[in-house]
Structure formats: C-alpha cells, structure tokens
C-alpha cells in the first residue's frame, strides 16, 4: 500500500507540542535550603535522640523535596527556567510566548511568576544577544504566557529558537499544606527504608500512599 500524504491535513504539523516553545530547561534551583525539618523527619522515622544520620537524612530531604516539586510541577523553593521559541512565534502581534511549568491553579496571580529577562539573537554572524526592555512585555496570569508588544525585525530567522525568556517561580503556597508535607514524609520514609533500587516485584503501592495524597493538587493538562 502506498504511503498516504497527510501534510495537507488540518491536524498535520511538525510537532505535537500544543504550546509555542521549542525547548526549556531549569537554570537555577535551590539545593541548600531545607523544607522538611530534621525534627519532622526524625519523628517520622522514630529516630529520637539519634543524630548520627543527620547528614544522610538531609540528603534524603533534598531528594524528596525535588521529587515532589517535579511531580506537582510547582516550586517549594524558588525555581528558574529558560525557554526558547522559534521565529514562527512572530506571526501574531503582539507576540504571545507560552510558559511551561506554570499552572493557573498553582500560580494564579502576577506576583507568582517573575519574568527575569526576555531577549533574542540578532541576525549578525555570529549572532549576539539583544535584551528587550521590560516595558515592552508583561506576564499574563490568565494564560500563563508572556505578551511582548513587538519584536524587532532583526531577529535571527536561521536559528532554530532565537527568542528566549528567563523566568522564576516563587515558592508555592501548597508547600505549606499538611497533606503535601505528609506525602513528602511518606516518600522520604520509603527512600530511607529502601537504600537501593526497587522493582514492582519487591514493592507494592500502599492503599493511601504518596500519589493518593498528591493527586488532588497535580494540575490536569487537557
């Protein structure tokens, strides 16, 4: 059977990403400040008056916190990202740049997200960075995106992703919820009791475990 050409179909495209960014990455993450206290941890593990494992417990606390952040897509400590956009983002005016990892439920207002910098690579060879004046853009909390009034025509159209946004998420209020902390303590207990990799044959999900506690707070992506 001959291959069917679907390039003209309305659903055809070069990407399945419903947003207009090309790629993104974390560029800054707090790996020092504790979230769960040693007192909370030692009570959870019944290690009363035992300080011999404090260094190890602190490393487990960090791993637990970052796992909860990644699962929920929220920041327990301030977390920064860098996002790249292709020149196809210039089609509309003003320009709308979607932000990944920003949920309306978790970051509902203007103060939750700080746009650190918006910049682009110019058409020079080699290309150099041009920073956009902050008065030319704003964060739209209703759509979790950056709206840029206009972008210069000198943007490099040869590069895959010449437009860049750096932004920081503040610590989320959910990080103070007792149910979130209890889920973290359950996960930390698992890591403490299983100091090597576990498989499905070795580990069974407890009926009311970490996922059950966190699921109501995990954003639903439609």
* Record field, number of beta strands: 8
Number of domains: 2
SS summary, helix count: 4
Helix content: 10-25%
Shape: elongated
Q: Provide the structure class.
A: alpha+beta
Strand content bin:
15-25%
Order of helices and strands: EHHEEEEEEEHH
- Rg for CA atoms: 22 Å
Distance between the termini: 35 Å
Q: What is the fold's blueprint, element by element?
A:
Layout: E1 21-29, H1 38-45, H2 54-72, E2 79-85, E3 95-98, E4 113-121, E5 129-131, E6 137-140, E7 145-148, E8 163-169, H3 178-193, H4 210-214
Helix pairs in contact: 1-3, 2-3
Search tags:
222 residues, alpha+beta, Hypothetical protein yqbg, 2 domains, 5-stranded antiparallel β-sheet, 3-stranded antiparallel β-sheet, 4 helices, 8 strands, 22% helix
Q: Any overview of this molecule?
A:
The protein is of the alpha+beta class and 222 residues long. The protein has two domains: 33-76 and 177-217, Hypothetical protein yqbg (Orthogonal Bundle); 79-173. It has helices spanning 38-45, 54-72, 178-193, 210-214, and strands spanning 21-29, 79-85, 95-98, 113-121, 129-131, 137-140, 145-148, 163-169. The strands form two sheets. The protein has a five-stranded antiparallel beta sheet, with no helix packed on it. The protein has a three-stranded antiparallel beta sheet with strand order 3-7-6, with no helix packed on it. Helix 1 packs across helix 3 (178-193) and helix 2 (54-72) packs across helix 3.
